[in-house]
């Protein structure tokens, strides 16, 4: 049985709550990321900075360069265990608001899976070449 960790990226680009917001958004733009997991010093998942969160900057009338990721991130820490099934991962990513799903192991961020990762996993599960 395939697990969520079988399709996830193990090298996860993260940010911290105290990172300047424009640095985090620049990282998202340069790496073409839909979201950045926000972690503390012990790699505990404390939130997610999504594209939707970043779009809120457009509505700002004052340029406050001192704002941080914590000012914009979603404190939502919806995640799955790395051993969750692909069905569980699909159930989460089928939600129109979820483009990526952080995966944890023993409560620590271990990987991240996107919809495109899951689509590639479907091809493997169904025995189709990528």
Number of helices: 4
Rg computed from alpha carbons, rounded to a whole number of angstroms = 15 Å
CATH topology call: CBS-domain
Order of helices and strands: HEEHEHEEH
Q: How far is the first residue's CA from the last residue's CA?
A: 19 Å
Mean pLDDT: 91
Please outline the major beta sheet. 3 strands, mixed
User: What structural category arises from helix and sheet content?
Assistant: alpha+beta
Strand adjacency order, main sheet:
3-4-5
Helix content percent band? 25-40%
- Broad CATH class: Alpha Beta
Low-confidence stretches: none
CATH architectural type: Roll
Question: What does it look like?
Answer:
By secondary structure, the chain is of the alpha+beta class. It has a single domain, classed as CBS-domain (Roll). 27% of the residues lie in helices and 20% in strands. It is built from four helices and five strands; from the N terminus they run αββαβαββα. The chain has a three-stranded mixed sheet with strand order 3-4-5. It has a two-stranded antiparallel sheet with strand order 1-2. The two termini are 19 Å apart. The model has no long low-confidence stretch (mean pLDDT 91).
């Amino acid at each position: 049985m395939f697990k969520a960790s079988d399709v996830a990226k193990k090298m996860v680009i993260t940010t911290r709550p105290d990172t300047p917001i424009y640095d985090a958004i620049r990282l998202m733009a340069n790496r073409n990321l839909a979201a950045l997991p926000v972690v503390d010093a012990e790699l505990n998942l404390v939130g997610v900075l999504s594209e939707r969160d970043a779009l809120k900057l457009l509505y700002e009338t004052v340029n406050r360069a001192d704002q941080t990721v914590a000012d914009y991130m979603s404190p939502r820490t919806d995640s799955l265990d790395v051993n969750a099934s692909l069905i569980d991962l699909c159930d989460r990513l089928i939600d129109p608001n979820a483009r990526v799903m952080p995966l944890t192991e023993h409560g620590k961020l271990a990987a991240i899976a996107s919809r495109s990762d899951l689509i590639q996993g479907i091809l493997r599960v169904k025995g189709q070449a990528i």
